[in-house]
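Quick one, tokens below:
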């Protein structure tokens, strides 16, 4: 029985550590500017979908409160580009720019040194905050998709 609890403890510990390995891989991909790894770690369809859901007040979104600058950016894009604005504006380069926005080396910087919060927001979701609360931080959600943790929402 003691062995069973020890095994159960190790499995729980491994599950708790697992998403943080994805955060580390994300940091390494950002520092190396590894586009293939970044594409594997970011679910662009989900990121765009969450932004669209946030715009629709009748639908629940995983995105929390957003900054005025984020709302202004979206409104300007929609006014200029129309209904397809999200698809045109939100791409992997935009996600990378958001993740690096608080970094002193925005060309090849990672996120670990600027991350101020990283904890579970549910059993299959990890919430990251990059930057200080009083400095318009960027938030990213990592969600468990199958056996992979991927970014499914980015906002500030």
């Amino acid at each position: 029985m003691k062995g069973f609890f020890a095994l159960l403890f190790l499995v729980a510990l491994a599950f708790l550590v697992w998403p943080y390995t994805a955060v580390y891989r994300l940091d390494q991909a950002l520092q190396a500017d590894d586009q293939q790894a970044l594409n594997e770690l970011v679910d662009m369809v989900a990121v765009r979908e969450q932004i669209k859901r946030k715009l629709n007040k009748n639908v629940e979104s995983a995105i929390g409160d957003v900054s005025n600058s984020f709302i202004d950016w979206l409104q300007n894009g929609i006014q200029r580009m129309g209904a397809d604005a999200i698809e045109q504006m939100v791409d992997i380069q935009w996600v990378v720019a958001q993740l690096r926005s608080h970094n002193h080396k925005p060309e090849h910087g990672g996120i670990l040194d600027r991350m101020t919060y990283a904890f579970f927001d549910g059993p299959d979701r990890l919430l990251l905050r990059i930057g200080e609360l009083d400095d318009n931080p960027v938030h990213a959600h990592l969600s468990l998709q199958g056996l992979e943790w991927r970014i499914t929402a980015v906002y500030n």
